[in-house]
Structure formats: structure tokens, C-alpha cells
Amino acid sequence: MPEKATYVDPRRWKALIFIALAQLMVVLDATIVNIALPSAQEDLGITDANRQWVITAYALAFGGLLLFGGRVADLWGRKRTFITGLIGFAVASGLGGAAADQAMLMGARALQGVFGALLAPAALSLLAVTFTEAKERAKAFGIFGAIAGGGGAVGLILGGVLTEYLNWRWTFFVNIPFAVIAATGALLVVREPAESRNTSRLDVPGVILATLGLVSLVYGFTRAESDGWLAGPTLGLFAAAAVLLLTFVLVESKVKAPLLPLRVVTDRNRAGIYASLGLAVIGMFGLFLFLTYYLQIVKGYTPVTTGLAFLPMIVGMITGSTQIGARLMTRVRPRLLMAPGFTVAALGMLVLTQIDLDTSYPTLILPGFLLMGLGMGTAFMPAMSLATHGVQPRDAGVASAMVNTSQQVGGAIGTALLNTIAASATTAYATSHAAGARSADLLKLQSMVHGYSTAIWWAVGILALAGVIAFTFINTGRPGGGSPVASSQDGEGAALGEDEVPVPVMAH
């Protein structure tokens, strides 16, 4: 390797602090607003029909613009894009907290999504080009993976505390100090090699097709949840998404400087990462969504208590990511971490299918949460590290954006699919048990729990499938191995050891 490629940034660990802080802000924002939504709805007079737009406006902007954001990071500079994303996210959060009506709140949420789409891929790609030594990379991505996996649960806790003891507006205002600290730190300590930028012209047709296609897909799943899977608007959106995304692939295969170079997604290992992460997020959303409702409505927990109930899962995620994943990443093949991790998470979910009206938190829910956390933390760590598996430095931003895109689309699918399954199972149970019910209220709770349990069973299968995909597709070896075997990354014919994990090559 050339001498210039061995440069190690002395401030890289300080940079990790601010990159991770920004990632935490983006991830927890996905769930922190959920806890505050009932209070915001009452305060601003948002109708039941419109309240979903507080969530959907963010999801559409974020999911639709992620690939564009990743390409902007490659073109414009990841550090500059990172800081711009932070400042814009803070401004949008301030507008959301100060919202005087529902239109202002929804506009602020959409603006958060726009700047989040710049920020998230810039953060991950900065990490990819900052840490290239195998053991350090494992530690850095262990921390990042724990935040990516556990940030949603942190959002539930923080959202509950802020909503109960202050008010819902602070679930937006809390982002401002996060963003200010992260942006200031990035200005001082984050360093990016300018030579790793992709200075090719922006693929405008690709931007339009990808954005419209992803927006149609995410919105289609949102409409499926409210209107039904076979409703005309739902089917129309799915058809539009299919046509737009297929056209996007065709365009990308022809243009000289594509928005998404197909080499990024046709690599076997990266394809396995994107698919398994997307499926895992579907399962995760099943847990957050139904257990939040279950703990508050069935068990009668307050928002704060509900958030704290998820704390063991956060501890499990941090432990799995930093103590299991990071320590073993340099010793075993990544698929031997990811596949067992998803399997353990599925076992934790399997435990939670047994919930009923009288379920004890310590004896059933707590073990389920711990297994979920350990499994997901162990799997997320190598997944985040391998997201830029063998990628050219100029493609690091868009490769990172694909991770966030798979998670965002997975979240949209999870919310719609599992909600529909739960609603159908709830209705079927209520209908079949109506005759022998002792009281309408009891039947309502029993039906609700049955619906949650049925949806969680589906999530078990989805997580198990994520494990199978990870084990089947991800065939790269551990870092530092020595058995030579020819392998090709991104069509470049690079020779890799059988036990070697390729890391992005930095041009300093």
C-alpha cells in the first residue's frame, strides 16, 4: 500500500464523538415524536385523519432524498454536508417546537426529513473514511452500531420524560443543543480527505427518478395502512414506484456518472447487508410499535415508565455491539455475528409473543427485551461496518445512504404490514369471541393483545429470514486472515484473503 494511504488522523476518536452524537439525534427523532404526538394533536387541534402526516411528512422527505443526500456528500464534501445537515436539522426542529398550527408542524417535520437525508449518509461515510485499521474500525462501528440500533429506544425514554414533565414541544427543542454541539465539534476535529470526493456531474434524471420512486414506495405503504392493501390509491402508488425505480435502474446502467453506481448494490456482501438490515428494521418496528401500545394501554404504564421499560433492551444493544460484535469482528467472519445475532433477536421476539393481560414484566418482557437487544446489537455492528464493504472512496456517501434507505423503507413496510396484520387479527378475535365475552372492555383488551401477539409472530419470522439472508449472502472473511483467494470488488478484480474484510481505501 502506498505510504500516503497509511496516514492516521490523530483526532479520529474525538471526531467519532460528534459523528455519533449526530447519528443519535437523527435516530431518536424517529421515535421521540411518537410519544409526544397525542399531546401535540390535542394542543394544535390536529384531526385523527391528519395526525399520521406528522410522522409521514418526515418519512417521505427522509426516505425519498437519502440517495440524493449521499451523492451530495460525495460531491460537495462529507464534512460540509454533515455540518449543513446539522444546522438545517436544528432550524427545522426549532420551527417544529414553535409550531402554531398543524401546517407549520408538518412543514417542520418535512424539513427535518430533508436535512436528515443530508446528515445521515454523511455521518456514516465520514466514519468509513476516518477509520480504516481493522481493530479500530471494529470499535468505532461497534459504538456507531449501538447508537443506530438503540437510538429508537432512547427516543421512547426521552420522549416520555420530556412530554410528561415539560411538554411535547421539547421533543423538538432538544435537538438544537445536540446539533450545536455536534456541528461545533465537527468544525474543530472532523477531517476528510478531499481526494476521496466524487467530482462527477450530478445525475439529475437519477435524482428525480429515485426520489419520486422512493416517495411513492414509502407513501404506498403508509396508504396501505390506512386505506387497505387493495385500495386503488395504494395499488397506484406501488405501480408508480415499480415503474419509477425500474426506470431508475435502467438510467443508472446507461449514464456516465450515475447517482447510484450499480456496482454499489450488485456486490454480494453489500446486497446482503441492505436486505438483512431492511428486514431487521421491520421486526424492530414491530417491537417498538406494539409493545409501546401494550405497556401503556393494557398494562397502564405512564409514558416515562414505558420508556424506561425499554432500557434493558438499550443496555443489551450496547453490550452486544461494543462487547460482542466489536470484540469478535476481527476474529470471526461477519456472517457468524450477523446471522446468530438476528437469530437471538428472533428468539427474544418469540418470548414476547406470549404476552397476555397478566404478563409479568420481570419474568417475560424483561428476558425478551434483553435477548432482542443483545442480538440486534451484535448484528448491527458488523452490518454498519460492512455497509461500505470494498467500496471506492468516491462512492462512500451513496453506499452509506443505501443503509439508511433500507432502514427507512423497512420501517415504512414494518409499520404498515404489521399494523394491518394486528388490526385483522384483533377484529377476527373480537368477532369469534363476542358471544362468550364477560364484558366489552375485557374483550377489547383481549382482542388487542391477540392482535399484537399475532403481529409479533410475523416479526419473528421476518427476523429469522434476515438471519438466513445474512448467512447466505455475506461471505467475506474476518480481518487479518492470510489465505489468499481471488475475489472481485466493484468489478476492480482486487485480490483479497479468504479471511480478509476489505475496508475503504483512503487517499490522503
UniProtKB/TrEMBL annotation:
Instruction: Tell me the domain of life.
Output: Bacteria
Q: Which UniProt keywords apply?
A: Antibiotic resistance, Cell membrane, Membrane, Transmembrane, Transmembrane helix, Transport
Q: Which GO terms describe its biological process?
A: response to antibiotic
Could you tell me what this protein is called? EmrB/QacA subfamily drug resistance transporter
Q: Where in the cell is it found?
A: Cell membrane
| PROSITE patterns named among the record's database cross-references | MFS (PS50850), SUGAR_TRANSPORT_1 (PS00216)
Matching entries from PANTHER family are given as: BLR6921 PROTEIN, MAJOR FACILITATOR SUPERFAMILY MULTIDRUG TRANSPORTER MFSC
Give the UniProt entry's GO cellular component terms.
plasma membrane
NCBIfam families noted in UniProt: efflux_EmrB
Q: How does it sit in the membrane?
A: Multi-pass membrane protein
Give the Major facilitator superfamily (MFS) profile domain ranges. Answer: 15-479
Which InterPro entries did the record assign? Answer: EmrB-like, MFS, MFS_dom, MFS_trans_sf, Sugar_transporter_CS
Q: Which GO terms describe its molecular function?
A: transmembrane transporter activity
This protein's record includes keyword Membrane: yes
- Transmembrane ranges? 12-33, 53-70, 82-100, 106-129, 141-162, 168-190, 202-222, 228-251, 272-295, 301-324, 336-355, 361-384, 455-474
Q: Which Gene3D superfamilies match?
A: MFS general substrate transporter like domains, Multidrug resistance protein D
Query: Which residues lie within the region annotated Disordered?
Result: 481-508
